[in-house]
Amino acid sequence: MTQDPSDWWQTSIIDMEPGRIAFRGTPIEDLIGTTSFPEMIWLMLRGDRPTAGQSALLEAALVAGVDHGPQAPSIAAARMAATCGVGLNAALATGINMLGDIHGGAGEQCAELYLDIDTRAQSVPLAQATVDGLGHWRASRGKIVSGFGHRFHKPVDPRAPRLMALVREAADQGIVSGRFADIGEAVQHQIGADRGADIAMNIDGATAVIFCELGFPPPLSRGLFCLSRSVGILAHAWEQTEQGGRNKGPMPPSILPKYVPG
User: Fold this and answer.
1) Amino acid 4: pLDDT
2) Which segments carry the region annotation Disordered (predicted)?
3) Which of these ranges, 17-26, 63-72, 144-153, has the smallest mean pLDDT?
4) Has residue 11 got a pLDDT over 90?
């Protein structure tokens, strides 16, 4: 039986043929100039249009995660790639490919924790659900809780309070429920109580609150962070291209790795 070649790929995202481009049923010419980039992201991922408030909250999360400087592996890798004679697209891909479970994936993992606690809280008070959820996390994933703590920003990551304030404002306006803001703050409080010292909710913890409030599945927390951080990666790759430099490694030539006999 011969397969119809048109059945090879099936998509509800785009309808494209000569002279026609439509995203989720809307002609591209009706989107250009009327639709913001966060709205377009929402449309492409979910198939419908966000409200103005939902779009603003998504945009805030995307803006907050764009960059954290060359000490971030993704940024450093892109800058090094830019000195190796590759194009911007390759430098950009190099940086994005560094966004794994530890650097870049914490938002996805944190969203999973929030959703687990939310499920538990259907039958027990939130405080108990938080204790139980953290206990399950630590038993299965170890003591480090994704979304909390930061090697530079102690005890406050300056991005998180602003994002959480925007979530609270959105909840007051009925744009989101505020449920996951409660969960995020409960987790932050419980970790601080367990360790006997305050701990920062970091960018991953705060954006996970927003993505959960907006109804994005956890894997998209990582995907959306990659979109956000790609802006910073591109900016640094371009800046390094303009600065020049050849074959720059992670350390200046005057600093050599410590040799340890095997």
Assistant:
1) 82
2) 242-262
3) 144-153
4) yes
Q: Tell me how far apart the alpha carbons of residues 147 and 191 are, in angstroms, rounded to a whole number.
A: 11
Predicted pLDDT of residue 164: 97
Question: Can you tell me the distance from the alpha carbon of 228 to that of 211, in angstroms, rounded to the nearest whole number?
Answer: 13
Claim: this prediction has a pTM higher than 0.85: yes
Q: Walk me through the domains of the chain, giving residue ranges and CATH numbers.
A: 106-220 (1.10.230.10)
25 vs 44: CA distance, rounded Å: 11
